[in-house]
């Protein structure tokens, strides 16, 4: 505040609004730097600004649990589930994941059917949802969800090529913990996407042929 007087001493002459009193009524502006450094005289309100006491996480826990319960919790910490256990628990409680897994189990397919259908494709259709992944300022291709589908697509291609060389080893590997159901879920989605692409192309060809006949 006293720095304003170093600029000029005319601020007080033109002060008239209520907010100006914050400056002209301040003791530093009235007394100057020398007097302000040695403290204010009597008559000035030097009480600190009211504020809430400082908070911390341990302090909040003590107030919520009590000191005895908090010390007991520190002395005998309860076992917390690992990251894998928490992830599995969350996936089981997710309705979307539960519905997809249930649909895969209720489909009635077998591993032999899955392997036979997988070998019947020369080129697998994309298992990722039909999304626009190109264009200016379109960064969805680098997002984790698209990287996940790209990794699954690559795994399906690798399985298809391995089936041509060592079908027995691949079948035994996929039978462990029903791992084939995971790939079958995305394989069925890829088949559905392939059928949608085929129907879209047929519809586009019919419209093109109709338009070409109209121009003749």
Helical residues, percent = 55-70%
- Shape verdict: elongated
- Strand tally, please? 0
Global Rg:
36 Å
Low-pLDDT segments: none
**Which class do the helix and strand fractions yield?**
mainly alpha
Strand % is under 5%
Would you tell me the overall average pLDDT? 80
Quote the distance from N terminus to C terminus: 87 Å
Number of helices: 12
Order of helices and strands: HHHHHHHHHHHH
The biggest beta sheet is recorded as:
none
Task: Summarize the structure in words.
This protein has 216 residues and is an all-alpha fold. Among the domains are: 3-37, no CATH class; 108-215, no CATH class. 66% of the residues lie in helices and 0% in strands. It is built from 12 helices and no strands. Helix 5 packs across helix 6 (67-75) and helix 8 (95-106) crosses helix 12. It is elongated, with a radius of gyration of 36 Å. It starts with a helix and ends with a helix.
